[in-house]
Design brief:
Blueprint lengths: L17 E2 L23 E7 L18 H12 L3 E5 L3 H10 L3 E4 L14 E4 L3 E10 L18 E9 L5 E8 L5 H18 L5 E7 L22 H8 L3 E2 H4 L31 E6 L5 E8 L15 E7 L2
Parallel strand pairs: 1-12, 2-3, 8-9
Antiparallel strand pairs: 2-13, 3-5, 4-5, 6-7, 7-8, 9-11, 10-11, 12-13
Helix pairs in contact: 3-4
Length: 326
């Protein structure tokens, strides 16, 4: 077993889906519109940039002392996902989730930056999913080594797990990642690497799930000329993945990009102004490819819950519900 790439590691490189419409794009914990979980419930997938845990220099957003950790756990427990991909996870986050998410197992995967370490861990609910193999790689020209390429501002990585969905018996491949926030060349290089890795390691008919913080905008509100100077966020990565046969759960569930479709908010919530944050908008996606005749998307939502000025992260989490046909 490779110490980082994990056990059961395949070679590193070797839907058209019937969609159900979603009824809502957000929820409040005091008015949850989720159905009670039953044996035949869909598999709920969640992606969440948790914004780290070493933030004592930001007292209002500090992971433990501000209440952010408790609120993040409340949101996760209310959504009740079967599968979670986190980005920007650090040891304080792992400590919290290890205590509070008792129904989940996890795999941290390779770390990205050195100081402090950032991870893209995957959590899954025992009794719903069974891991068959797991591993990870770095988004660089030397993916087997802790390294960066293409003028990336930070070293980036991907974590993967092959699962069996216990209810249906179907297997699928899940990849959780975080593309660079500065270099468009690094995002393009990372996107091509991810797509190539999935193509090389997929088994015939496999559902492929690729989720995370892509630091790219499929769409953003119009701003005056010159606003957001220096922003490198474009729609190129989103267009690339769609051209490679992926579908975006947010769009395929019947939701539309617009003034309230952002997943980044910089701890500002409804007051968020993208002009002050390099035009960041809907950066977090859950993408699917494969299993064209079998998988349905039953819903998708961006979760905007907060307690006053306290938010669980500077990103809103995103979930999607998936079911397999007979």
């Amino acid at each position: 077993m490779h110490p980082i790439l994990g056990k059961g590691t395949p070679s590193l490189f070797g839907l058209s889906v019937r969609m159900a419409k979603n009824q809502a794009s957000s929820y409040r914990l005091d008015a949850i519109h989720f159905q009670q979980r039953e044996i035949m419930d869909p598999m709920r997938v969640m992606s969440f940039n948790i914004a780290g845990g070493y933030d004592d220099d930001e007292p209002g957003n500090a992971w433990t002392t501000s209440g952010r950790a408790e609120l993040a756990c409340q949101v996760i427990e209310a959504i009740a996902p079967d599968l979670i991909g986190l980005q920007e996870a650090e040891w304080p986050n792992f400590a919290t989730f290890g205590r509070e998410l008792a129904e989940y197992d996890s795999f941290q995967g390779p770390h990205a930056e050195d100081t402090p370490h950032l991870y893209n861990p995957i959590y899954w609910r025992r009794g719903r999913l069974c891991p068959l193999a797991r591993g990870g790689f770095w988004l660089s020209e030397m993916p087997e080594r802790h390294s960066g390429s293409w003028d990336t501002a930070e070293i980036r990585a991907a974590t993967w797990v092959r699962f069996r969905h216990l209810e249906s018996g179907r297997e699928f491949l899940y990849v959780n990642t975080h593309l660079d926030h500065i270099s468009e060349a690094a995002r393009v290089g990372g996107a091509k690497l991810l797509e190539g890795w999935l193509e090389a390691n997929v088994q015939d008919g496999d559902l492929q799930l690729l989720a995370g913080d892509f630091n790219s905008n499929p769409w953003r509100p119009q701003v005056e000329p010159g606003a957001g100077a220096g922003s490198t966020f474009t729609d190129e990565i989103h267009r690339f993945f769609l051209a490679c046969g992926f579908v975006d759960c947010f769009l395929e569930a019947g939701l539309q990009d617009g003034p309230d479709s952002n997943t980044y908010h910089g701890y500002e919530g409804a007051a968020y102004d993208l002009r002050g944050h390099h035009l960041a908008w809907r950066l977090d996606w859950i993408l699917l490819r494969g299993a064209r005749e079998e998988v349905k998307i039953n819903g998708c939502a961006v979760v905007r819950h907060h307690q006053g000025a306290l938010y669980p992260s500077d990103h809103y989490p995103l979930w999607a519900d998936l079911t397999w046909g007979n």
